[in-house]
Amino acid sequence: ERLYKELINKDWFMTLLDLEDYIAVKDKMMEDYLDQEKWQKKMLVNIAKAGFFSSDRTIAQYNEDIWKLCE
Fold this sequence. Notes:
The protein has one domain. It contains four helices and no strands.
C-alpha cells in the first residue's frame, strides 16, 4: 500500500510517466512476435544495425564532437 501511494502521489523518479507508452509498445511487440516472419526480419535488422554501435566508438565520437579532450 505504501509503494502504491508513493507512486501515485509523489513518483519522484517519474516511474509511471511513460507507463502507457511502455504498455502500447509491449503490446505491439507481442503482436509482431506472433507473426514470425515479421519478427525475424525485425530481429535481423536490429542485429545488423547494432554493429555500428559500440561504446568505444561512441565515446570517441562524443569526445571528438562535444568534449574535445586530448587523447
